[in-house]
Amino acid sequence: MAELPQGQDPDFLVGFDQCDDAAVYRLSPHLALVHTLDFFPPMVDDPYLFGQIAAANALSDIWAMGGEPKTALNIVCFPEKMDLDILRRILQGGSTKVLEAGAVLAGGHTIVDVDVKYGLSVTGIVDPERMYTNRGCRVGDLLILTKPLGVGIICAANRVGEASEQAVQQAVKSMATLNKHAAEILRNYPVHACTDVTGFGFLGHLHEMLGGERHAVIFSSEVPAIPEALAYAQEFLITGAAQRNRNYLEQHVQFDSRVEFSMEEVLFDPQTSGGLLVSVPKEAAPELLAELHGRLDLPCAIVGEIVEREAKEIVVL
Amino acid sequence: MKRKLDARGLSCPLPVLEARKALREMEAGQLEVLVDNGIAVQNLEKMAAQLGLDCESSALGEDQYAVLITVGPGSPGAQRGAPSTAPDTVVVLASDEMGAGDPELGRLLMKSFIYTLTELEVPPAKVLLYNSGVKLAVQGSDTLADLLKLAERGVEILACGTCLNYYQLTDQLGVGAVTNMYAILESQMAAGKIVRP
pTM for the whole thing? Predict the structure, then answer.
């Protein structure tokens, strides 16, 4: 992407060169468009749930920017000979989440392909003065994560028939949960930086947030994770994608010797429709966390702190 | 003895799982795993490191790698693969007696209970001690040795600070760490399973 010409326009506020969640284009001093697109192959067997998860994932980037989703367009790849009822279920699942998001499903496009893929292109609005970018965390901020980690490991274990039904249910519930509610709560707090945790895993998105300028300490014992994900990682249900994240990030991360191997894997685990990772002033964090706990039905926690300097960019205790 | 496992064409976690299965069946010898991508090589190396096994890998050609894992008769990891502790299980010892009844019997049962914990293949992640339960972890207690064994296996042992203070045992804690009400509550809130003898 870095090689592509972006064009010059003073109203083009956030683009792909800033490693942010979505693109932002200013229309007037207090109104900007937020654009994002995401689609992928199924990670669960049930087409309806897959539709819900893909939509929750695509919509999430808008909330991670502090915006409100307004319109969404389906993007579908579907095999010619597959049962169209499956497609119908996927689209139904997706539409329920677009509706829950308060946005309008405005259309879409389907092409024939060998495998199923589904997602959405979502457009939202944001006040550029109140937009959340990845960059902006300050020394002394606390980091809050609004969903448990480990869904990638559980989906991988499920693919090879090693995941329990309970674990899959927890992962599906987490993935299908919109970040909308967490984002609404955030509006009342002084957010310094915000992103959603997806393919680069918790540590990858934290690395983007630190932007080569800040350092963070992570309290691994506080990090919410689906318990089975830790157990499966200990059983070596480990993924290629987590290892790719590890290869990319290793030089920036130092693990204390007490951090278990399974926790390392969970911290590198790519997430589908993961939670918001938010950097807020220390004073605001307890109240924000209490409100999140009160209104969200998923584990969330204060997982780390932005610090002056450490041996590595990220130190995991 | 050298076993071979062709895991080419498989994507993670399968090469690692297949290798783990093969290693479980081996007492000693070498396992050669063939894979077709470098990421699988790294994941196999990680597994070997976790199991305490020697591991060497080499590139055989384009998209062809061999990972050689050596299992010795005494190699620590040969039979180790199950999680070291059950990650979401917390044992709560709220008294130095097990059950309600004759105190002497209660203490005997508790001693036996803690011994049995050490015999579990997968011990709990945490043992919380509060009220007279903290007496189980102090110097001179006949359950201290077994609790130390659990701690060595990675079980986190946490004793209530207020309780130690109340019984004036603070400086006699022989295992684990001192904890507070917040951590006691949080451990139990986060637990998938709580065992209370």
Answer: 0.74
